[in-house]
Amino acid sequence: MEERMRIIQGDITQITVDVIVNAANSSLLGGGGVDGAIHRAGGEDILAECRMIRAKQGSCATGEAVITTAGRLPAKYVIHTVGPVWNGGSKNEEQLLESCYNNSLLLAVKHNCETIAFPNISTGIYGYPKELAAKVAIRTVESFLQTNKGIKEVVFVCYDFENFSVYKKELKEM
Ligand code: AR6
């Protein structure tokens, strides 16, 4: 296993890394799940920055990512990426989920971040099957790390025990 990847079970708002990733929606205006938790814990500065981004570029397409500062959170930045809604698997969900991880990592590198934490994008409200999503996440991050030496650590933060078990199993099998 790529030694710069690790998994923990916990709340991503509590993690001290350079940047945490948010599983947002295309409005960028907040929502439930991890998105709600990040905006609640980080305070209104994050939402104000999201509104400025919307004013400039409009909404954020699925698979794309934008970056803001992190308000009161221990991280320096929040990358907001929009995962695909699971629609049975034939609506390009896999490529879109891959893009979320790749675009987030690219944005992190662009902002000189060395440590990044991901939630299990799309596996909550958006219904992406957890095992399939974990395979995509791990494979995409691993191949990104092969050509990038600037990122020192990628933490997969699993909130629910089911995702934590799935990640443990997938990483063991590598
Ligand atoms: N820290 C880490 N992971 C968390 C936390 C937390 N504090 N809270 C929940 N999770 P979801 P999605 C996990 O639904 O499926 C929002 O309303 C959760 O267990 O947050 O991409 C957005 O605004 C799950 O494994 O995101 C969008 O409308 C994972 O985060 C929509 O939900 C993702 O679940 C996005 O849906």
Can you put this structure into words, describing what you see?
Residues 1-174 form the Macro domain. Pfam families: Macro. This is RNase III inhibitor. With 174 residues, the chain is of the alpha/beta class. It has one domain (5-173): Leucine Aminopeptidase, subunit E, domain 1. 41% of the residues lie in helices and 18% in strands. The chain has five helices and six strands; from the N terminus they run ββααββαβαβα. It has helices at 33-42, 44-57, 93-110, 130-147, 161-172, and strands at 5-9, 19-24, 65-69, 77-82, 115-118, 153-158. It has a six-stranded mixed β-sheet, with helices on both faces. α4 (130-147) links the parallel β5 (115-118) and β6. α3 (93-110) crosses α4 (130-147) and α4 packs across α5 (161-172). It is globular and about 45 Å long. The model has no long low-confidence stretch (mean pLDDT 97). Ligand AR6 is lined by residues 11-13, 23-25, 31-35, 37, 83, 119-126, 157, 159-160, 163.
